[in-house]
Amino acid sequence: MEVATYPILLLIFLVGIMWGLKNYLLPQLNSGSNFATLLINHLPLVFFSFGAFIFLLTALSVTLFKRKSAIMNFTFLVKLPLVHSFIRLYLTAYFAREWGNLIAQGVELRQIINLMKKQKSRIFSEVGKNLDLELNAGRSFEQAVSKLALFLPELSLMIEYGAIKDKLGLELSLYADECWEQFFTKIDRLMQLIQPLVFIFVALMIILLYAAMLLPIYSNMGSGI
C-alpha cells in the first residue's frame, strides 16, 4: 500500500493547486476561454463530483449489503471480474489462518464452529452456521468448505490433505501464509500498474497548468506588438 501513498497525495495536492489557481490566479490573468483554462476551471468540480458519486455509491452499497446475509454479499462480490481474485484470496487466507491456529492449539472442530457462530463478524458467524448445518447433514469438513464459493478450491484440498497427514493445523497455517503472500503480491502489482497512470495524469495536469498561465500572457504580448 505504500506504493500508492505518494501518487495519491500528489494527486490531492494537484487538485488543491488547481482549485487555488481557479479562484485566485486565473481571474487576475484575464485568461479568456482557451482549452487549458476551461479544463482547469472545471476539473476541481469534476473531481469533487466524482468523489461524491463514489461516496454515495459506497453508502448505498453498504446499506443494501446490510439487508442481505454476509455469505450472499461475498458470493456476489467473488463473481465480479476485477475484484473476485482479491476477495477469494483474502477470505481463504483469513479463514485458513484462523482455523489453522485453533486446530494447532488442540481445539476440536465442533468447538471451532461454535466459536465462529458466536463471533460479531457477520461473515465469520454465518460461515460457522453454514458449516454446522453441513456437518449435521453428514458431510465432512472439506466437503462443507468446498460448497462455499467464497474460498479458493484449493482450501478444501488442503483440509483433506492435512487431515490425512494428521497435521491439519500446520497445513492450514502454511497455506494461509502462501495465500497472504499471493494477496499482497497482487495488491503490489495493482499499485505498480496504477502508479504510472497517476503520474502520467499528474504530468498532463501540470502541462495544462503552465498552458493556462502562459497562453494568456503570450496572447497579450502578441496583441501588444
UniProtKB/TrEMBL annotation:
Where does the Type II secretion system protein GspF domain start and stop, copy by copy? 95-216
Localization (cell): Cell membrane
Concerning InterPro entries, the annotation shows: GspF/PilC, T2SS_GspF_dom, T2SS_GspF_sf, T4P_ComGB
* Membrane topology, record value: Multi-pass membrane protein
Q: Which residues cross the membrane?
A: 6-26, 38-65, 71-91, 197-218
User: Any keyword Transmembrane helix?
Assistant: yes
Where along the sequence do coiled-coil regions lie?
none
Using the UniProt record, give the first listed, main subcellular location. Answer: membrane
Please indicate which superkingdom the organism of origin belongs to: Bacteria
Q: Which family does it belong to?
A: Belongs to the GSP F family.
Protein name, entry field: Late competence protein ComGB access of DNA to ComEA
What species was this sequence derived from?
A: Lactococcus lactis
